[in-house]
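Problem 12. The chain below contains 98 residues. Write out its predicted structure in token notation.
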Amino acid sequence: MSGLEVLHHDLAALDAAIADDDLATAAGLLDAYQQRLEDTVASAAAPLPAPALRALLDAQLALTARLGVRRDAAAAQLRQAHRANAASRVYAGLEQAP
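Solution.
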């Protein structure tokens, strides 16, 4: 398996860990991916083929987009929880008013 194929495999494993909400594993996979990417680029005897690098970049961008969607969904849930908490505090204050 070539270095670029291994990087694609690493991205797929990272994507799977994120999909499973296994963030501890995802963090380790991300660190390993970053190191392997740096090593692959630094150790290439010849320039890496542009189409293969573009495919890897596209895979990274797709993963980043999926992470953005998850981040936005989590942020919306947090905002909703904060609003519910604020509303319950107001309601509790109304019950205690003379």
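Discussion. The chain has three helices and no strands. Students who got a different answer should revisit the alignment rule from Section 12.3.
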